[in-house]
């Protein structure tokens, strides 16, 4: 069922990526420098955002299932969705896992010959901080699963908008 | 070549009649041979459940099969006269359509139930292992099982719970997933709460607590369910790790309020709580549902879900019938082709009408 919910998101992201990719890129930016830290940073960051995307989808599924249970509206989708407790666990795990990967990805950027410019760095750190706050709020008294779900959607939307903004302003280069 | 079905079910005969003709599992083989001999049939399968007794015969004419089964019923069940009961008699293709409906649960008391499929499979396996089936009934029953699988996977005939107990179990599964580790508290030791608890236990619940105004009655019920009893004024001590609360007391005012549950929410660390209120007047205050991670269902909401599921199953009946008719035609085509191959007359396609 996760696949059915993920497909529209992947489709939307791929469509946006396609149009961004169609835009003319200056010759200088096409020649990507070869650097192990850069590749590690890019690969891990991509995986982390993929995991956050899945957390966002799991959050949507949780909220939908919760709404159905609270409103007593049990339609066909209700029977196909996993248990609400399972979705809450999945959401929490994905956020933790994604944060761990993003942390390593950001640390890899330290090894780059030159750090990204201020705005890009600031946005990357802001996204990391957003997810870190969500994950650390799970500890102690914990956080209501519905709040975690909403935050995972908000954080992913924030990361998409800000990273797209930075890319649009500062160019597509790594 | 023909497949004949002769029998009675809950639509045509009351339980006091059906029980007279019920065939014990141990006698299925012996009686299948007897009915084969009497009907002059080459193959026979007897399906006997609490809602039906049916004889499927092949290799005999419809008339001979009908007389043979009448004789058999009188011989096997002594003073029972088949004329007294509404016995239906079908031959192909109606017999096949009937068998397909039976295995799909369309002819069951609870529409779409799946238990009947297992019972028919067992009856067929027993007849088959005793050598009472051959080419025709083997093909007929295997086709029936294939149709049942198709109907279950392509339609919603067995989707959704249609009783209060099963709705509660289904909702619990959609909240907790695996129920084996759930802790259940029964408040009120009445028949309804016991039935709901047993439904949950059938899905793996083992940790059960009973509380009641009379501790003695609570202990009695707890013992019969394998749980433990607590005094009514101590039920809140169980709240911190409780998963499911079932209430059915005779109280006239809510016995569980928002104020009872709120203090435990912090201790519960956002663990969901499923409240099933099957009492009238209600035992749980309605505003409890507004609490985060609390899911409250009263008797009306459970019944509404059950009714909706039943309605949805009824709506699926037409789709199932369409699938069944397609498969009946396919079976009939095979039967006709096989008959032509072996130079026999094609089967009579008119049903012998149910005699009453």
How would you describe this structure to a colleague?
The complex is a heterodimer of chains A (174) and B (356). Chain A has helices spanning 2-22, 27-30, 36-71, 76-80, 84-109, 118-136, 145-170. Helix content of chain A is 79%, strand content 0%. With 174 residues, chain A is mainly α. In chain A, α1 packs across α3. With 356 residues, chain B is of the alpha/beta class. Chain B has 11 helices and 10 strands. In chain B, strands 7-6-5-8-9-10 form a 6-stranded parallel β-sheet. In chain B, α9 links the parallel β6 (207-212) and β7. The radius of gyration of chain B is 26 Å and the shape is elongated. Residues 345-356 of chain B have low confidence and may be disordered.
So what's the oligomer here? heterodimer
Uncertain segments of chain B: 345-356
Provide mean pLDDT of chain A, rounded. Answer: 85
Largest sheet of chain B: 6 strands, parallel
Query: Can you give the helix content of chain A as a percent range?
Result: over 70%
The global form of chain A is globular
> How do the helices and strands follow one another from N- to C-terminus of chain B?
EHHEEHEHHHHEHEHEEHEEH
């Amino acid at each position: 069922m996760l696949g059915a919910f993920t497909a529209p998101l992947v489709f939307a992201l791929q469509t946006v990526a396609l149009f961004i990719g169609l835009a003319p890129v200056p010759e200088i930016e096409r020649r990507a420098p070869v650097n192990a830290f850069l590749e590690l940073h890019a690969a891990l960051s991509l995986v982390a955002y993929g995991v956050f995307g899945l957390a966002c989808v799991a959050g949507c599924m949780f909220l939908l299932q919760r709404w159905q249970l609270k409103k007593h509206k049990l339609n066909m989708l209700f029977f196909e969705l996993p248990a609400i407790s399972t979705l809450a666990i999945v959401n929490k795990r994905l956020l933790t896992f994604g944060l761990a990967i993003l942390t390593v990805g950001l640390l890899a950027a330290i090894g780059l010959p030159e750090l990204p410019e201020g705005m890009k760095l600031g946005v990357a750190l802001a996204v990391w901080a957003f997810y870190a706050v969500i994950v650390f709020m799970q500890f102690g008294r914990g956080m209501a699963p519905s709040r975690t779900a909403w935050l995972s959607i908000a954080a992913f939307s924030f990361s998409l908008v800000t990273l797209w903004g930075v890319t649009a302003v500062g160019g597509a280069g790594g | 070549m023909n497949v004949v079905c002769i029998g009675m079910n809950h639509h045509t005969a009351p339980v006091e009649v059906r029980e007279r003709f019920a065939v014990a599992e141990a006698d299925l083989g012996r009686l299948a041979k007897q009915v084969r001999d009497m009907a002059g049939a080459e193959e026979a399968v007897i399906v006997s459940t609490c809602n039906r007794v049916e004889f499927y015969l092949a290799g005999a004419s419809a008339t001979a099969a009908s007389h043979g089964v009448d004789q058999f019923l009188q011989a096997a069940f002594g003073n029972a006269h088949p004329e007294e009961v509404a016995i239906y008699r079908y031959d192909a293709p109606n017999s096949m359509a009937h068998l397909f409906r039976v295995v799909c649960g369309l002819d069951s008391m609870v529409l779409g139930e799946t238990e009947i499929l297992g019972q028919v499979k067992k009856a067929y396996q027993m007849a088959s292992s005793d050598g009472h089936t051959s080419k025709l009934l083997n093909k007929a029953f295997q086709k029936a099982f294939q149709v049942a699988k198709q109907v279950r996977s392509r339609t919603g005939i067995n989707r959704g719970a249609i009783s209060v107990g099963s709705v509660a179990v289904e909702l619990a599964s959609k909240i907790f997933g695996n129920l084996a580790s759930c802790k259940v508290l029964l408040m009120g030791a009445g028949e309804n709460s016991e039935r709901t608890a047993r439904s949950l236990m059938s899905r793996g619940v083992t940790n059960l607590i009973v509380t009641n105004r009379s501790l003695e009655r609570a202990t009695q019920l707890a013992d019969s369910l394998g749980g433990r009893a607590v005094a009514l004024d101590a039920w809140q001590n169980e709240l911190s790790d409780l998963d499911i609360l079932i209430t059915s007391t005779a109280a006239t005012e809510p016995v569980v309020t928002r104020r009872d549950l709120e203090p435990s929410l912090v201790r519960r660390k956002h663990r969901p709580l499923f409240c099933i209120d099957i009492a009238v007047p209600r035992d749980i205050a309605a505003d409890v549902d507004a609490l985060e991670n609390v899911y409250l269902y009263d008797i009306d909401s459970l019944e509404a879900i059950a009714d909706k599921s039943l309605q949805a199953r009824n709506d699926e009946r037409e789709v199932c019938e369409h699938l069944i008719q397609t498969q009946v035609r396919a079976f009939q085509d095979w039967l006709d082709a096989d008959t032509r191959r072996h130079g026999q007359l094609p089967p009579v396609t008119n049903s012998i009408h149910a005699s009453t």
